[in-house]
């Protein structure tokens, strides 16, 4: 008789509505495959924005290595909301409150705070066109003119580019972020020839020197209710262009994230909630799953 495959523990969570699956791969040799990701996303019960696959600790990552998969099966270098979900999962299970992970983008430190919120050190932003990356030289990445094809509205023809480990284009808009039809042009902008690795496309409306509203069409996942790395990118771009200070609340449909861009070490600290929904088990190769 064929040996039954050992399923991996899977937690359905969300970070301000950003749909996350945490898959605990510690103690295993196999990997969560892009095929499994696509299958899980195709099922309405497990459809997600990102999978956070937690592997055994590696050098300089005492709490584990994290692979991030988008819902189209592609890999991402950063996921702020997903990182908070991993911290919530581990702090409930084992009790610790301070974590050091690693991803393809490097070290990732996070902490569960006394009030239940979770802070993630998202590292330093990068502004050079090669690192974002953009397709060609841009001396000043604070104000970049989008080449055609673009939307008729002038606010949608100029962006700030930031890498938070992953590529972000932030368009500062004068009106409510919901009034622009991001769902229509997001797919085209995500794959615009100026972004060789595609990009997360955000609309940001400044609402005060310490707050902004944000809507994001995520690379590899589409329109989502929240994107933590985009919140960091928008906050950094806003401060860099003098629109806000370095400490802001970023408002999303399900609540807000606090973003602080530290002067002392250039790191961006994102603080917000994570929410558990349900638990299950999954075959990481095929994406066949069951609810506990
Ligand atoms: N939702 C995430 C960002 C996920 C990665 C992104 N789609 C990409 O491909 O870069 C977040 O909370 O940061």
Automatic annotation (TrEMBL):
The organism's lineage is: Bacteria, Pseudomonadati, Pseudomonadota, Alphaproteobacteria, Hyphomicrobiales
In which pathway is this protein known to take part?
A: Amino-acid biosynthesis; L-lysine biosynthesis via DAP pathway; DL-2,6-diaminopimelate from LL-2,6-diaminopimelate: step 1/1
EC numbers for this chain: 5.1.1.7
Q: Where in the cell is it found?
A: Cytoplasm
Family from the record = Belongs to the diaminopimelate epimerase family.
Catalysed transformations (reactions): (2S,6S)-2,6-diaminopimelate = meso-2,6-diaminopimelate
GO BP of this protein: lysine biosynthetic process via diaminopimelate
Q: Please give the SUPFAM superfamilies that the UniProt record associates with this protein.
A: Diaminopimelate epimerase-like
Q: Which residues form the active site?
A: 79 (proton donor), 79, 227 (proton acceptor)
Domain of life, per UniProt, equals Bacteria
Q: How does it assemble?
A: Homodimer.
Amino acids binding substrate: 18, 50, 70, 80-81, 166, 200, 218-219, 228-229
Q: List the keywords (alphabetical).
A: Amino-acid biosynthesis, Cytoplasm, Isomerase, Lysine biosynthesis
Listed under GO cellular component are: cytosol
Its protein name is: Diaminopimelate epimerase
Q: Which InterPro entries match?
A: DAP_epimerase_AS, DAP_epimerase_DapF
């Amino acid at each position: 008789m064929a040996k039954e495959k050992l399923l991996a523990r899977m937690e359905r969570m969300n970070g301000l509505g950003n749909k996350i699956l945490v898959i605990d791969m510690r103690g295993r040799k196999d990997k969560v495959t892009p095929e499994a990701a696509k299958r899980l996303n195709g099922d309405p019960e497990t459809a997600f924005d990102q999978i956070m696959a937690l592997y055994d600790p590696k050098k300089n990552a005492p709490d584990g290595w994290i692979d991030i998969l988008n819902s189209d099966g592609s890999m991402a270098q950063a996921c702020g909301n997903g990182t908070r979900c991993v911290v919530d999962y581990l702090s409930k299970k084992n009790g610790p409150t301070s974590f050091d992970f690693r991803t393809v983008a490097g070290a990732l430190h996070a902490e569960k705070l006394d009030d239940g919120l979770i802070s993630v050190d998202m590292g330093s932003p990068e502004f050079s066109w090669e690192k974002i990356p953009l397709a060609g030289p841009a001396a000043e990445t604070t104000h970049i003119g989008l080449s055609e094809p673009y939307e008729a509205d002038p606010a949608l023809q100029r962006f700030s580019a930031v890498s938070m480990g992953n590529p972000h284009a932030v368009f500062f808009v004068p009106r409510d972020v919901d009034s622009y039809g991001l769902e229509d042009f997001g797919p085209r902008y995500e794959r615009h020839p100026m972004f060789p690795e595609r990009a997360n496309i955000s609309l940001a409306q400044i609402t005060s020197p310490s707050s902004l509203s944000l809507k994001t069409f995520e690379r590899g996942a589409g329109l989502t209710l929240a994107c933590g790395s985009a919140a960091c990118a928008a906050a950094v771009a806003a401060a860099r262009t003098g629109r806000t200070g370095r400490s802001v609340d970023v408002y999303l449909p399900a609540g807000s994230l606090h973003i602080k861009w530290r002067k002392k070490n250039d790191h961006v600290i994102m603080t917000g909630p994570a929410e558990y929904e349900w638990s299950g088990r999954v075959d990481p190769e095929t994406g066949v799953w069951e609810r506990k």
